[in-house]
Amino acid sequence: MDERNIEVEILGTLYKANTVSDLVDLMDQDDFNFEQPGAMDNWMNYGFIKKDVSDGDVLKVIGIGNVDGTYFDVMCDNGVTFSVNIKKEKLFFEMRGVEFGTTKELYDWLKTAGNAWFKTNDSTLFVEIEEGITNVSLLHSFLNDKKKEFLLQARNADKVYTARVIDKNAGGFIANIDGLETFIPGSLASANKISNFDDLIGTDIFVMFEDYIYEGDTFIVSNKKYIKHILEEKIQLLSHDEKYTGTITGVSKFGIFVEFDEIFTGLIHVSEMTPETKDEFTFYKSGEEISFYVKEVARNNRIILSEYKGCAVVTTFEDFQAECEDTIQECEIVGVREIGSFVKFKLNESSFIGLFHNKEYPEGFMPQMGMKLKIEITEVNIEENKIFTRAVEQEYNTSKNEIA
Prior knowledge:
5-stranded antiparallel β-sheet; alpha+beta
């Protein structure tokens, strides 16, 4: 606001300042009470600072007064005061964390603490003018700010939100984030397939921005994106000594798929089951609980679970790169393809799969499943989770068909 000389007498006190904000600060220092009879009327009538407002204006709120049973007056930094309906702004105060039960309780809070709250909590008022009628809203301005924040997330999604699931439709869920309606596709609403959509209604889940559909003015958010965002950090906190309890999400002939701690999924292989579980697990159903230990975290953050305690140390792809890149390591052929052989390396009981390209085969080499080799790891690509290898310069044993 341009600097100006303001002199205004309110309830017998003369205040002088350069801006309206400075004026209000002076009145605060004087413990001025806007609830005094006539105080707001004087404020509204000191005309020389008023300016006309336009449709779409967003005005900074600097105080309130004249709280009655239905309305309260909002002072803005351009010198204009508006009358605001308390009921229509209930959601605004709820989203800003003001605790109240009924409209009457909100009214009492506005009378006693509202003005002080607006002094310490930045708020703006949105102006809408249609056919000569002016409407203003704290809620509208707050939601517009949220929309702007979400659109900025489209460039770099790095913020986590709490979404309250309020309804479902054929494709997913309708969720509320700070008063803004968003959509969570069913495929992005959980780490695993959701068997009963009704179970999520009324719950709070963590999400991150996924996309914005301009045609429908719809913000798409994702729980899976949130899980991916925090997984690397959280996975380091897993303990091999702690006994976890999870929910069964599926059963196959080779094991039980489990979800635990809301973000993790893992497999209890038949070889890691107690004899009792091994005899009965094919009868287990999704939704039932089971207890286990974390055995290891393998490539691509695959979590291997066990019913037995005393398991391997968690080894990441980054650990493998630091330990094994540019070194000669023993491996085992676990797959033979036209392009080459897939080989398995072991580090701290964790397994890592790399490619031994056919261009790197020694002359006459015939790969076979289960064959043990010693080859050089030339590159470990963290971003793509790929391991590149080549044969070492050593004598090739044609009789045994192996690299010595």
